[in-house]
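Review box. Two proteins, two foldings.
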Amino acid sequence: MLNIKASINHAWLHSEDIFLYKVEDKRNFYPNAEAVVELFEMARGYTRNVNPTHGSVAGVLANPRMVEAISHILGASDNHWIGIQVGFETASPRLMEMYLNNKMKPFPPKEWPWVFLHL
């Protein structure tokens, strides 16, 4: 609220993975799309520009309509790009399974290259 009072009309929604906001499926990490979309709607209600910082490609692929809704809320277009850091550490399913097992959920580690290439 301090930024809004100071006439700062933009905000970053910062999270390790914004698409896991209020996730209910703690086993497979399937995104709670309704909660994520509501978060962006709320933030957009206070500021002119809102951008996410970090999110997984698996969350996007698991629910592409969620990203379409967020893009609409944020006014994404050819002239207004919305970027996000996705964290592409490796293409190896074996390494993903060993060290980053939750990053590609709800997809299994063996599908990681497919997930990343189909985003």
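Next protein.
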Amino acid sequence: MYKFVEGQPLIVTEKMKEDFWRDGYIIVKQLLTKGEIQKVVGSLEAPDSAVMAESYEQDDGFGRNVRMVLWNHPGNDVTGMVNRCEKMVNTCEKLLGDDVYHYHSKFVMKEPHTGGAFQWHQDYGYWYLNGVLFPDMISVQIGVDRMDKENGCLQVLRGSHRMGRVEHGRIGQQAGADLERVAEAEKVLDKVSVELDQGDALFFHCNLLHTSSANNSSRRRWAMICCYNSVNNDPVKKHHHASYTPLHKVSNSAIMDCKNLNDLSGKWFVNPNKTGREYLPTEPRKQ
């Protein structure tokens, strides 16, 4: 477990790389400051939040829903600054060993007592179907709220990324990994509950098997997940996530400096529950 020190660059050490490639993930404490989290949350909780206007519900296959909002191009609002800031992007690049571009990001919102579960899956389990040839991809989950076992935090099988891609099918509106394969993996790999405080970040490999249970607690469980692909791994076909688009990094201070809390110019949303809300990679959404 590592810690980001505000005002200093996040140095990715050889030990961090070693841990990432051995376990499939690392945790960086306080990647986002309390002020940065409050700014992001404020932009979402505002009655006129343009980002939340693009949210939708997804069936978990067991009678519950998870609310989500998903976008591809990061844009210039405060959530886009999180996607583009150096402490996020540079860390992904150092861990993968290549430059990256923004593949997509989302907020996952599990409300108290009602928020649904996510089935065991690998992100590359379905990104593979988008024409992405190699698992040279990484995701970063940020705790917007405190995330623990009680409210449905992420669970991972440590080292499962070394299994390669597992076959996936559909469970409700979600993609789920072959449960027989998962059961065998559980016999030989440690299952870890990834508990995060506000602002903590989990950097994880796209083949890491992970799941999360329903939120049966009285507390909200919101998370932001930012996903990146290697620039040398451009998908070979058009699909509903971003193909290679140069990522323009910003300084870490850009999150707090950003005044565009509701400006969606340059963003590209995907909402499967709305007709006409999926945009081709060559046609980013225009305001």
